[in-house]
Amino acid sequence: MSKKQTPLRVPVTNGLKDIYAMDMHLPYQAACEDRFSVTAFARMAVAISVVRTALVQKKTQIPDAVEILDAAIITLTGVRARGDATDVWEIKEEERPSILAGIEVAEDCIGVLDVALLEQTAAMLMGQMSGQQG
What we know:
Elements: H1 14-32, H2 38-58, H3 65-86, H4 96-109, H5 115-133
Helix pairs in contact: 1-2, 1-4, 2-3, 2-4, 2-5, 3-4
């Protein structure tokens, strides 16, 4: 009789937290310095979306985290629509608080997640995106 193995939960390391933080903070900083681009936008949007979706999948009970991330994603959706339409990539002054709050929450919450969940979530979201582009 074989014993059922519990999946190994590998916690998010400081190095991985730093990568996610850089993928959010550096594009935000670039936007504040008028150096924003579609590539920077994509890095930030993907990082925030992966953390948000992973929190939902884990059914995390961190107060207001998903709502704050949702607000940031709604704001980023507007940034994307404007960028796609005009080819001018910017985060307007009034949009910055929502996005910065999302970055801060994502950074604070990533420690409750695990590496496998982040990887699976990223793969799922990228699959959904590539399916929409077809």
